[in-house]
């Protein structure tokens, strides 16, 4: 890949593959989310990151890894690539989405991947009512339930930076009202909830119910022994989720990229 002044630099896809030998699986997935997102980590910024244009995509990484053969770290890179999502807008957004969607064997809740920060056009009547011609949701699940009923669930990530901002609080209330008018169910996850395994798992179970996905099988009519076994397995699963959230919260200081 050629940069300015004829300088050659490694492509994001190649860097993703090369870092597979140095990073853990979770660290590699976080790097991939950054490469395919619209932010870059920055120690010089108070928020810890700066916005930038997207320099790669999940499709490009998967295609590149599909061409590669016999390279060290390739299998881990392919596994990490299968968990990536395009267009994450912040590190916290990436961490929350990975906690919700990574497979249970890696500690995640295993929810289906949502679309991140996608533009949703409003109808003429909606635009006249809410004053917006389009909306961007941090994450949105859409589809059809087994009953045939269509669903739309959006998730907003609230960081601590906004908690004491009265203007943000007012706009957040208006946004929730507008989303409800657009017939989309609104779920918010705060940075504090991300750090609380019980609270985070409850939000995940709530989303799973709304999108018609079963992420745990509770024996409603089982014997007390079966229910105790389930509760033990669930506690073990929450322990793995807590380990994953802790690793996601740890920021790795590695190579960072800027758009050319």
Question: What do these coordinates show?
Answer:
The protein is α+β, with helices and mostly antiparallel strands. Helix content is 44%, strand content 13%. It contains ten helices and eight strands. It has helices at 12-18, 25-35, 58-67, 74-81, 91-101, 124-130, 166-181, 191-194, 197-210, 224-249; strands at residues 39-41, 49-51, 115-116, 119-121, 134-136, 139-144, 150-158, 185-190. The strands form three sheets. Strands 3-6-7-8 form a four-stranded mixed β-sheet, sandwiched between helices. α1 crosses α3, α3 (58-67) packs antiparallel against α4 and α5 packs antiparallel against α10. The longest helix has 26 residues, at 224-249. The radius of gyration is 20 Å and the shape is globular. Mean pLDDT is 84; it is low at 253-260.
Number of helices: 10
Radius of gyration: 20 Å
Reading the helices and strands in chain order gives HHEEHHHEEHEEEHEHHH
What class do helices, strands and sheet pairing give?
alpha+beta
Overall mean pLDDT stands at 84
Lateral arrangement of strands in the main beta sheet: 3-6-7-8
Percentage beta strand: 5-15%
Q: Using DSSP, what is the number of strands?
A: 8
Biggest sheet: strands, sense, closure?
4 strands, mixed
- End-to-end Cα distance, whole Å, is 11 Å
Q: Please bin the fraction of helical residues.
A: 40-55%
